[in-house]
Amino acid sequence: MIFLSSQGESLFQLVIVLFIFVVVLIMTYYATKWMAGYQKQQQIGKNLHVVETVRVGNNKFVEIVQTGKDHYIVIGVGKDEIVFLGNLDAEAVNIEETSDKQISTSANFRDILKKFTDLPNKKE
User: What is the pTM of this model?
Assistant: First the structure.
């Protein structure tokens, strides 16, 4: 029988661990994509939709929620409570429509990385 030297065993273990790591990363990527699509499908046809959220403090948010077709409410959300703040008219709410295609291309990692790598180097 031929036994691997301790260096050979260590290198073999490193290759196996790196392979497993890459496989887990790929599985995580596809599982995340699947979950995002699944959750998006679950939201279709629902009557509640969070239009906008603004952080106003530590664990405190103000949200505009669309309830139904043309009814909007403003709520305050804290760690342990939700407080009704008021109603909004549909004309008072400024909603910018973005398609799914625009969202996916605007959040492309390669484009974001390219924007930061193309910055001129400042040497002071």
Answer: 0.47
**The pair of three-digit structure tokens given for residue 16, joined into one six-digit string:** 């196996």
The encoded tokens of residue 15 equal 């290759």
Q: Do residues 52 and 65 touch, judged by C-beta distance below 8 A?
A: no
Q: Are residues 40 and 53 in the same domain?
A: no
* 6: containing domain: 1-44
CA distance 104 to 106: 6
Among residues 89, 36, 90, 83, the alpha carbon closest in space to that of 63 is found at: 83
| CA–CA distance, 75 with 90 (Å, rounded to integer) | 16
The answer as to whether 124 is a domain residue is no
Q: Domain check: are 29 and 61 in the same one?
A: no
Q: Do residues 6 and 29 both lie within one domain?
A: yes
Count CB-CB contacts under 10 A for residue 64: 20
Tell whether 119 is covered by a domain: no
pLDDT digits (tens, 9 = 90+) for 57-111: 899 999 998 888 888 999 999 999 999 999 988 877 777 654 444 444 455 777 7
